[in-house]
Design goal:
about 100 residues; mainly alpha; 5 helices; globular; CowN; N(2)-fixation sustaining protein CowN; nitrogen fixation
Amino acid sequence: MSCSCQKPGGGAPDRYVSFSDIDCDGNARLLMEMLYRHLEDPAKTNAFWEYFKKKAAGETGPQPDDLFMVHCHLNQLREFFETHEDREAQALLEKIEEECC
C-alpha cells in the first residue's frame, strides 16, 4: 500500500497526510540563520534574544532543535521580523507555521 501525499489533482503536499516533501528542519534552520544575521547588530538584540540564543545553543538545558525553537517562539519571531521589516523572513515563518507547526 502506498501513500500519496499530494492533494487530489496534484499540487503541494498536504501536511495533514504526511510531512513528506516538506523540509521543516531545513526551513527552520534557514529562518534561524536569518534571525542570527539580524542579532549580529547590537541595536537589534535585547535580553530576551540573548536568552533565546543561549537556549538555542543548549546553554540553559538540553539543546532544542531549530524547529522547536521556531514553534515555541512564533509570536516573538513574527513581531521581530515585522519590526525590522524583513519580508523574506516573515514569509518563511508563515510557511513554517502553516506546514510544520
